[in-house]
Amino acid sequence: MSLGALLGRTWNGIASIVVRPPTAAALFRRALEYRNAGRYDEAARLVAEGIEQAPQSSIGHLLAGYLCAARREIEPAKLAFRRVLALDPYHPRALLGLARIALEENDLEASRALLDRALQFYPDFPEARALQEMAISPSGPAAATTGAAPAGTPLMSAGDLELGIPARDLSVTRADGSPVVARVDDKRAQVLAHHLAQVHRMATATLACAGLGPLRRGVVETGGGMTLLLSDAGLILSATVDGHVEIGAGLTQIADLATKLGMTASAP
Amino acid sequence: MSEPPAPIAGATQPTGSAVPSRGPSRALAFREMLAELSKLERVRGGLIVTPDGLVITTDLPSQSPADALAAFGATLGRELELGADRLGRGGFNAAVFSAADGTIFVGGHPIGFLVLIGDQDVDVAAVRSALGQALDRLRTPVANA
Question: Residue B42: its chain A contacts at CB < 8 A?
Fold first, then answer.
């Protein structure tokens, strides 16, 4: 063999090593490392590349679902999890992913059914157990109408909802998501009540999981202000105030209002 | 078989090549930040979780149910984000929830949620401030990563 031919073969050998594309499994492993570093976009690109090579990979579709969910892309996440289930109908992580989305969308029935399926084969699945607790907690979709106070609830009207500082979205909501009274229009009252019930359900479950007891008070800070909430006896009193209000002062105000409304005996 | 496979079973073996980094490792930065916050007075520990409930890093007492807390924390964090959006309240920043025996803090970030667990008498304002600063520090590398 001539020196030229030998060099040529050697070069071709090296080139074939250098340019050989990574396998789908290697791409998924790297994607996972990116995900763990919070670099979701780069991870998603690698997963897409891997799925092109291995379109029937449940790992690839599961990772795609995780990454879509992490990037708050809910419909593509559902699609990816469903693809996993098409390959493996009882894949616990895909079932969990869909159950979490259903819970987020307040479709508790669907969430429970998916979790039941996951737990049927994997009864010791802590995340599924945790979400199941959340999905079967007493709060449910709003059913009642504004102004209808439950038995034992102090009678109150929108005019009673006065905080000592400027506030908006003042409301009292039952833990099941039905509004009792609110100083907003009916449409907003429903959205507000649904959100408050969801937060109540989820915060209560998180506090219980940490062994801290039932929810009493909460403060949620957003770009548009600070929402204060107080929970007692199955009722949630809430108001949104300016973001510059000091947290302690805001909580004192809402506790005073709860006492005035007669809805709490344990306000701080 | 009663326990489910690892989140990505079959894809968790070391690859021998770490995530290419520009500047300090993000994963290391998460761990350091959480360790720093966990040292605050009357803070018991915490975790960073993706919006879909997978743990990125934890610094919790050994008996704490990290996976369940991650599932709860992520679901709560998502509802706080979605609710803020539905009600036109601007982006979700952080939340504090207190009970008879303790307090939880939830901080929002593009990568997920930072959850801290504190005692009932924790200094809410001090922890809230430290949490905000930590999340701000994390935001810069996100833009550059």
Answer: none
